[in-house]
Structure formats: structure tokens, C-alpha cells
Amino acid sequence: MNKIFTYVALCFVAGLFALQAGHAQCYQLGTNVGQLSPVLKVPIAFCPTPAQTGAVCDCPAGYVAVGYEGLEGNVYGTMVLSQFKLRCKQLNPDGSLGAAVTVTCSNGTSTLGTPDGPVDAGAGQALVGAEVRIGCATDAVIGRSKLLSEVYTGQPNTVNNTMPLIGGTGGSPNPVMYAPNGNVFVGMQTYVESGAAPAGAAGITAGVAWRYAPILNVSCGAACSIASIAVSNISACNNNGTPANSGDDTFTANVTVTYAAPPASGTLNLSGDGTASVAVGSIGATSYTFTGVSMSADGTPIALTATFSADPVCTLTNNNAGSAPVSCSVALPTCTVNSITASNFSVCNDNGTPNNPGDDTFTANITVTFSNPPASGTLNLTGSATAAVPVGSLGAGTYTFTGVTMPSNGLPVQLTASFSATACTLTNFNAGNAPAFCSSGVATIPTMSEWGLILFALIVFSLTVVFGMKQQQTLAMGNAGGNMAPPSSKLPFDKALFLKVLPMVYLVFLVVFATLMAFGYNLTNADIPGSLLAGGLIAYLVQFVMKSTSDQ
């Protein structure tokens, strides 16, 4: 009898445990998101543009807001917020928060200022309210946090913990705004400054409307799990029309994900070597096959990850779900120019100007050897000579430019060969020596020493003429019976007559040099100073002769 009683008691206790397990409670963030009234800037003369509605910046699905961070310092003040974001953590089924923090998009697009924050609520707490100070822009955000264990039980959100602010103490204070009891902040409707007055104001945060969602007590069901990721129907490699580019080679395959107890909302996402997504409402009870998933054909193991968006911890990675086909593109060999040689040098050609070496030329054949030329463009020759030929006219590995004209200057022949369609080039700095100048009829160019001889001869001649004529005048006076005056030691000089003769002498020099240059003569550095000095001596001699003749 006692054994029977004991057995019944044990069965009763086990039943109680089973009943309790069947009614175990878990926590889940509701999907019905509400929104509080906005707190907006007040337009005044200094900032006349009203706040403009911006993006909705919510935490990811299943995440709650636990803090905030931002940038402060702009045209409105050094502690005025330019933008701010909410910091979020995942709500776990047991009511705890995940360790990882993710941030929402920014309330405000301005990037002015320096970082302020982050500010996070205490352990196990989430945002349930906030105070905003605002004027021309959002001056400060001051959060109110509460333990999730108190939110679950519906305790008033007005009983909370005040968090440190981001921003400053400017602007006008506004009443603290709270999510309804049992709800927490999950995001915000943003508002931005859209006007250009004052300068630099565009994009600064201009207000906010807090968004909230309830935390629900739900029965704990079986935990979601992903059992396997399998690949099938692997196609052949596709070069995508670029047979020389292996970087865009792909293949397709079917990817089957097997799972248990999937969440009721969200999507099943595939990532890694292949990406795809499907709404949970479209998947089967235990598996789903993504068909024709495109992946890179690189010959490596296929790595894939499957994740349910509504339950990020329900994930699986298979780092070797199969082998991708190898690349089916063959890279083209690298183009090279191997050599540049010159042959069949002609003699110098003065081109009909025997007094001008500047246009002396010769011709030669230029042979370029190469490997793996491009399929289009031209082969170009530059340097001492220029020429070009279409790639379609090239031979197999070599091409000769015939009768290429180059300067006949006695210097090394420098040539560069390059393909226009690719960076494939070579320079030969000495492909041979050009013939020397062949213009032999160049007018004799007096050097400085030659001009010195000319000047010296003019001086001697002038002195001879002057003293000869003076001596002749003295003898003539003696024969006439007059008294012979002693010869004067001064050179006779008529300044006015000299200044008249000098321009005419220089004009003659100018005509002579212009005529010589027309026939190919090139002026030297000695010609101008030599001409000026010689012209002065000649002008003196002319004026002396003219004056002596008139005196007679």
C-alpha cells in the first residue's frame, strides 16, 4: 500500500512540474510600434525655417533602446547637438539584454562638431522616457531608464532613473515624455533643419518624436534551430562574357536550409558566398531551398550562413557546403616590347638649304620586336622619330617602320615604342648615331676673336687715313709758301656730323645681316657687339673724310 501511495505522489509532483513547464513565461518585443508627439524647434528670425521631417530611425527588430550618442558644436553653439543616434540591445527571451550594442541612423545629417557620449542605461535597463531641450536646434537629450523586470510587470514608467545628458544646457526645457507603461523606446522619428539660414545650419537635428513598443509575456515555445545548409545542382562556370577576366566568373546552385521551430515573422537570410532572402511566411515547416543562387566561381570551398532575422541567435554557418567550380576565364598574357633597333641609315640630306644645318635629315628603318600585343589600338614610335601603325597591320612579334625621317645632327638616336591600348612600352636611348650636319655652305660666322681683328684693322686704317691726310695738308701749305704749322696731336672730330653718319652706317649693317639671314645665316653672340663697335669706327672715318674734303 505504501509503495502505491509513493508512486502516486511522485506522479503528482511530476505532473506539477510538467504543468509549470508548459506555462513557463518568456519575453518578446511587440511589433505594434507607437509614436509620441514630436518636440520641434521654434522658428525665429535667426533660424526662420521650420523643422523638416526626416527618416525613421528604429532599432533592429527585437532590439530596445538603451542609450544615445551624438555630435555637438555647430553654428548655434558649441554644445548644441548637430545629430544624435539611439543605442540598442537585443531583448532575449529570458528578459535579459544581449551584450552587443548597435546604433540607429542619425537624427540630423550634419557632420559638424565633436563626439558626445555614448551614454548607456544601467544593467538590465532600457529607455522609457526622455527630456529634450530645444531652441533653434536640439540642445540636449536627457534619458529616463527603467529596469526591464519592472517594465514587464507594468510598473509606472514615471518612476525611473535619470541618465546623463548629451548636448548642453541651452534651449528651452520641455516636459519629460514617457512611453506607456509596459512599453520601452525602440526608435525615433527624426526632424532636420532644411534651410540655409544661418549659414551652416542645414542638416542639424531640429526635433524628435520618440517611438515605442510593448514588451510581451509569451509562452516559451521550442527554441528555433538551424540543422544544416546543403548545396545541390551546381552549374558550370560562367565567364559572363569576359573571357580574360576571372574576377566576374560565377556559377549557380540550389541551397537548402533545414531548421526547426522557425520564428513567426521576419525573414530567412542567406549570406556568405551567396546572398538571398525569403519571408518566413513563404518557407516550409522544416526546410527551404533557395534556387539558382549566384556565387563566385573561384574553386574554393563554399561558405554559407543562414539566419532568421527575427531571432538572430537562430543561425548556422557551413564553411564547406561544397566546392565552387574553378574559374573559366583565361587571363591574357602580358604585353611586352622587347627591342628597338635602327638599320639602313641614309646619308645626310640638307633639304636644299646648304646654309641651314637645322633642317638636315636622314632616314633609317626602325624595327620593333614585341610579345602578346593588344588586340586594338596602334603601335607608336616617338623620340628622335615619330610614326604609328594600326595593331592589325603588325607582323607576328615584329614590325619595321621603313624610311623613318630623323634629324641629322650627329647625336645618339633615341626612340620609344609603345602600344596605345595598354601600358606596354620600351625606350632605347642609343639606337645608333645620326649622321653629322651636311650643310657645307654655311656663311662664315665671325667669332669674337675675328671681330677683334676686324676692329683692330679698322682702327689702324682710320689712324692711317687721319694722320696721312693731316700730313698731306701740312705739306700742301708748305709748298704754297706759308708757314708750316706743327701737326696736331688731337684726332679731328665733328660731333654733329658723326651723329648724322652713325645711324646710316648701322642701317647698312642691318641690311647686310638681313640679307645673309635670308640665305641661312645664323647670328652669333659676337655679331651685335662687334657690329656696334665697328659701326662707330666706320662712322668716325666717314665723318673725318667728309669734313677734310669740305675743308679743302
SSE blueprint and pairings:
Elements: H1 2-22, E1 25-29, E2 34-35, E3 39-40, E4 51-58, E5 63-74, E6 77-90, E7 102-103, E8 114-120, E9 125-134, E10 138-147, H2 148-152, E11 161-167, E12 172-173, E13 177-178, E14 183-193, E15 205-219, E16 225-232, E17 250-260, E18 267-272, E19 276-279, E20 287-296, E21 304-308, E22 311-318, E23 336-343, E24 361-371, E25 378-383, E26 387-390, E27 398-407, E28 415-419, E29 424-428, H3 448-479, H4 495-518, H5 527-551
Antiparallel strand pairs: 1-15, 2-15, 3-15, 4-14, 5-6, 5-8, 6-7, 9-10, 9-12, 9-13, 10-11, 14-15, 16-17, 17-20, 18-19, 18-21, 21-22, 23-24, 24-27, 25-26, 25-28, 28-29
Explain the overall architecture.
The protein is α+β, with helices and mostly antiparallel strands and 552 residues long. It has four domains: 28-219, Jacalin-like lectin domain (Vitelline Membrane Outer Layer Protein I, subunit A, Aligned Prism), CATH 2.100.10.30; 225-318; 336-428, Immunoglobulin-like; 448-551, no CATH class. Helices cover 19% and strands 38% of the residues. The protein is built from five helices and 29 strands. The chain has helices spanning 2-22, 148-152, 448-479, 495-518, 527-551, and strands at residues 25-29, 34-35, 39-40, 51-58, 63-74, 77-90, 102-103, 114-120, 125-134, 138-147, 161-167, 172-173, 177-178, 183-193, 205-219, 225-232, 250-260, 267-272, 276-279, 287-296, 304-308, 311-318, 336-343, 361-371, 378-383, 387-390, 398-407, 415-419, 424-428. Helix 3 (448-479) runs parallel beside helix 5 (527-551) and helix 4 packs across helix 5 (527-551). It is elongated. The chain starts with a helix and ends with a helix. Residues 1-23 have low confidence and may be disordered.
